Structure formats: structure tokens, C-alpha cells
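Input record (Table S2, row 123):
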Amino acid sequence: MARARSAAAKQKQLMDKHREELLAAIDKMSEEQVECRDIQHSYRKWSVRWNPQDREYIRELKCLRCGTIRAQRVSERGYLLGSSYAYSEGYLVKGLGRLDQDDRGTIRLQSMLGDLERSEQNA
Ligand SMILES: [Zn+2]
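Output record (zinc ion complex):
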């Protein structure tokens, strides 16, 4: 982890308060949550129910990694009407608002640094 930590430390010096808060939030995330933030959720079909009141299906997909549940509202004819998400604890970064491209870059880098260390050990 030494190389990953020093790279992360150097990067951190260049960062503003927002970035530091983001790094603190990433630190609190599980490895699975960081991975999902980096390469998106890995969904599996979970459940389906028919809602007779609104004449629509509610289909739930569950992420195999982090446990996030995506609920899709699907019309009788199969059209997607909307989605809502139930995230696992710690997934959402409170107070930071919507993550921008720079934020996603920071998350991607943090996700990759551990992988780099592991890949070098296995080489
Ligand atoms: Zn996930």
C-alpha cells in the first residue's frame, strides 16, 4: 500500500476542501461501494410485483457488490417509466451535492490505486 498511499498523499496536497471532503467520504465507503462508484453497479434481477392501482410493474434489481436496490417502474407494455434507488449505508456522499467529472476522476483513481498494488504483487 506504500506507493498507493504516497500517490494519494501527493494528490491530496493539491486538493481543495471539497476534494478533501470527497476523499474522507471515499475512506468511509466499503471497497465494494468504491468499486460500484468507479465501474457502476453489477445488477441482478431481484423481484417483480404488479401494482394494480397504477397498472404498472415494480421490478427490483439488486447490486451483487454493494447491495444497492434499483426499483424500476415498468408499464403494462414493458416501457420503463422511471427508477428509484435504495443505496447501501455510506454510498451517498452527503453535503457534496452532485459529483462532477473531477470527483469521478478522484474516485476512479482511489479505486485503481489498490488494484495497482495488487497487480504489482501478482506480477
Ligand atoms: Zn453496487
